[in-house]
From TrEMBL:
It holds the Pfam family PPR_1. Keywords: Repeat. This is Pentatricopeptide repeat-containing protein. Residues 43-62 are annotated as: Disordered. PPR repeats lie at residues 133-167, 204-238, 239-273, 274-308, 309-343, 344-378, 379-413. Belongs to the PPR family. P subfamily. It comes from the Eukaryota. Residues 43-54 have a biased composition (Basic and acidic residues).
Length: 474
């Protein structure tokens, strides 16, 4: 059998219209490599020609039904070939494409980057009497967005209007989401929202949230706040996210008082702030050293329907410790437990470090013990800070007790921690006693990778040098 070669559709000549169905099927078969169906298609075409059946009426010709043509178009991996099939079918008498065929081909052309062909086909569709699916425009918006063409994305809004269709909120919001990713299109996005009312399109809460977030991140807080106020004028009800966006924006600009006012307004209107809103505000209050206000807000959370979590408590603990109020942080830790929120590794590390920085080594040692009992591993810097602190105030026994506790729980003190103790051995009134204390510590079972091995050699050599001269003199 000889293979058929085809030129572009506008130059095709067919001797008999009855052969169109056969040729089109063969064309599709070769392009999609479905050669296994070729013989059956030939047989069907020959039977149709021999029977000399008249052309089918009612929107179906010898080229096949609209549904069949749509399947052929959808099956093509080459969008230009799909367009040829579409054009070939369009020229047949009494043939009218299904809307699905238009929809499929428009998207196929757009996704392959043939934007001019897509626009041309879209313009042709406008003159046809079809009911257009809103999803078509949603997908066109996404196509231009993926292609990085925000200017074309913006034009789609007005294209929808040309079809005598009112854009849906989902169309507007998807356009806005794409536009605000480009700094140069922030104000065009704002202008679009302001103009939508002219066309009977009402932006919803999500529309305003998209714009407010974008302008807050762009440090245009005044525009974001004006949009928030405009929502009330337009009878658009803000949601929790609306408030959170502005609270975060004010906190980012260190305008914590305005953020607190927004929270109060939120509570007065019956909203329950989410945990992220509280976290943002608590952190901002602590950084502004407004610890009293932060602690009050923490206590109000549960009353207002939002149970504080570990992040909220740790934020306050860190704030108190940062300002040298570690004992107040200890009270917050007690509040955590009484409210059913267990301290975590960050809670203990922050608290022990804060206590050590204030010279409260006894309290630090107590909380370090709690930390170990809970199965948390202290960072070696925390242990070093505590051991060094005890050594500095002459409490060598307490320093040894800390090391003993650490080793008992299988932790590895850093070599610098051991070396910190060496100068104090020579100051001890009974170096032999100190040596025995260290030896007892060194006898404890520790992990194979313990860095104490190197320190133990150094300590041993140091003790020999200190003790041997005294033994020689005696």
């Amino acid at each position: 059998m000889h293979f058929l070669y085809f030129c572009p559709a506008n130059k095709m000549l067919f001797p008999m219209i009855n052969h169109c169905y056969l040729y089109l099927q063969l064309f599709a078969s070769y392009s999609t490599k479905e050669f296994r169906n070729k013989q059956e298609l030939v047989k069907q075409g020959e039977e149709q020609r021999l029977d000399k059946q008249p052309l089918k009426q009612n929107n179906e010709t010898s080229i096949g039904s609209p549904a069949r043509v749509q399947k052929l178009i959808a099956a093509q991996s080459d969008p230009l070939l799909a367009k040829e099939i579409f054009d070939l079918a369009s020229r047949q008498p009494n043939f009218r494409h299904s809307y699905a065929a238009w929809h499929t081909l428009i998207l196929k052309l757009g996704r392959s980057g043939h934007f001019s062909l897509m626009q041309s086909l879209l313009s042709s569709l406008k003159s046809q009497n079809y009911t257009i699916s809103p999803s078509l425009f949603s997908q066109i918006i996404q196509i231009y967005g993926d292609a990085g063409q925000p200017d074309e994305v913006l034009k789609v809004f007005y294209t929808i209007l040309k079809f005598d269709i009112k854009p849906l909120p989902k169309h507007l919001n998807r356009i806005l989401e794409i536009l605000v990713t480009q700094h140069n299109f922030l104000h065009p996005a704002l202008d679009l929202v302001k103009s939508t009312y002219r066309y009977g399109v009402s932006p919803n809460t999500t529309s305003y949230n998209i714009l407010m977030r974008a302008f807050c991140l762009n440090d245009d807080l005044s525009i974001a706040y004006s949009l928030f106020n405009e929502m009330f004028k337009r009878d658009v009800v803000p949601d929790i996210e609306s408030y959170r966006i502005l609270i975060q924006g004010f906190c980012r600009k260190s305008q914590v008082n305005k953020a607190v006012d927004l929270l109060e307004d939120m509570l007065n209107k019956g909203f329950v702030p989410d945990t992220l809103s509280y976290s943002t505000l608590l952190n901002s209050l602590c950084r502004k050293k407004k610890l009293k206000e932060a602690y009050k807000l923490l206590c109000r959370m549960k009353i207002k329907g939002c149970k504080p979590d570990i992040i909220h408590y740790n934020t306050i603990i860190m704030g108190f410790c940062r300002e040298g109020r570690a004992l107040d942080a200890c009270k917050v830790l007690d509040d955590m437990r009484s409210n059913g929120c267990l301290p975590n590794l960050v809670s203990y590390r922050t608290l022990v470090t804060g206590l050590c920085s204030q010279g409260l080594y006894g309290d630090a040692k107590t909380h370090l013990g709690e930390m170990l009992l809970q199965g948390f591993s202290p960072h070696f810097s925390v242990v070093h800070l505590l051991v060094k602190g005890f050594c500095n105030i002459g409490k060598f026994d307490d320093a040894c007790a800390v090391l003993e506790e650490i080793l008992r729980h299988g932790e590895v003190p850093h070599i610098d921690t051991w070396m910190e103790m060496l100068p104090w051995i020579s100051e001890a009134g009974d170096p032999e006693s100190m040596g025995s204390t260290l030896n007892e510590i060194l006898k404890m079972e520790i992990k194979p990778n313990t860095k104490i091995v190197d320190a133990g050699v150094t300590l041993g050599e140091y003790l020999i040098k200190k003790i041997a001269p005294r033994s020689y003199k005696s």
